[in-house]
Structures are given as structure tokens and as C-alpha cells.
Specification:
With about 180 residues, this protein is an alpha+beta fold. The protein has helices at about 1-35, 75-80, 85-90, 110-135, 140-165; strands at about 40-45, 50, 55-65, 70-75, 95-100. The chain has five helices and five strands, in the order H-E-E-E-E-H-H-E-H-H.
Length: about 180
């Protein structure tokens, strides 16, 4: 019975560690994807435009508040006559860059990661709660009670962070 308890405790601890490490991994992945989309382009804040390696500017084309993105587009006639078009875009309407309105903390990936982390934390806390009730030995009971409390604290923190990443209520209004 004791070895089973340690196995459950180790599994709960592993779930907590995975939940805590997810944000670090997801944030890094999000940043790599964001950078990969703009490789070869430079943003000019004073112009609110991106510039490609050939010197063409991609100007602000539209802001989609529902999708929470900004689109920048180059003129089709410029891109279609560009010497490196085949390596840049297959569109005959000009190169387009799509940039999120929000950074990592409010991104969809952050919401997904936080919901996943919260699920893992709740699962770990549930294992600890069950084992706390099952154990008759005080040291094991205390161990699982500490795990349950740690899970509750982490779950509360993750729930708060998940709520912070929710898009404004106006984004969900009917169009």
C-alpha cells in the first residue's frame, strides 16, 4: 500500500511539474512562430509598416478585431514584379503579413496552455485528495495533504491567469 501511495504521489508531482513547465515551453514556441512569420522583414513603428528585404513596404491593410489580428499587405503590382517573389509568396495579390493584436499573455496559445495547465493541476490535486482520504499513516496523510494544498494554490493562480487572458466580452457579441 505504501509503494502505491508513493507512485500516486510521484505521478501527482510529475503532473504539477508538467503544468508549471508548459508556459515556459509554450511561450518559447509562440515567440519562435511569431519571429518565423516575419523573417526577412523589418517593422517601422513610425510608419506602421513592415519592409521586406527588397525594400517594399507592407502597409496596414486592415484590423480584424474579432480574429484579433492586423494585416499588412504590399501592393500586388510591386510583388508580382519582384525578382524573389517565388521565394516570398505565391499570392498574386501581394505579400501579406498577419500580426496578432496581443502579445503572449493574451494570445489564444496562452489561453490554451493555461487551461491545459489548470486541468493537470486539478487532476494532481484530485489524486492527492483521494490519497489523503485513503491513507491511515500520518506521514503519508500529511504528504498528500501538502500536495493537495499546493495544488489548490497553483490551481487558484492558474485560474486567475486564465481569466486575465480572456478576450473582452465585446469580442463575442453577435455581428
Amino acid at each position: 500500500m505504501v509503494s502505491e501511495a508513493w507512485f500516486v504521489g510521484g505521478y501527482a508531482l510529475l503532473l504539477l511539474l508538467i503544468a508549471l513547465g508548459l508556459e515556459w515551453i509554450a511561450r518559447g514556441s509562440h515567440e519562435r512562430i511569431r519571429r518565423a512569420r516575419t523573417v526577412g522583414f523589418r517593422y517601422h513603428g513610425h510608419l506602421n509598416a513592415w519592409q521586406c528585404s527588397e525594400g517594399t513596404f507592407l502597409r496596414h491593410a486592415d484590423t480584424d478585431r474579432h480574429a484579433r489580428v492586423v494585416r499588412f499587405r504590399a501592393e500586388a503590382k510591386v510583388c508580382n514584379g519582384c525578382r524573389i517573389k517565388e521565394h516570398c509568396t505565391d499570392s498574386d495579390e501581394g505579400r501579406e503579413l498577419i500580426h496578432p493584436l496581443e502579445g503572449w499573455p493574451r494570445s489564444e496559445m496562452a489561453r490554451f496552455q493555461r487551461a491545459l495547465s489548470l486541468s493537470l493541476i486539478v487532476l494532481a490535486a484530485l489524486f492527492c485528495a483521494i490519497e489523503t482520504a485513503r491513507q491511515s499513516e500520518p506521514p503519508l496523510r500529511l504528504f498528500f495533504l501538502c500536495g493537495l494544498l499546493a495544488g489548490a494554490v497553483l490551481a487558484r493562480r492558474e485560474l486567475r491567469r486564465l481569466k486575465e487572458t480572456q478576450p473582452p466580452a465585446s469580442d463575442f457579441s453577435p455581428r
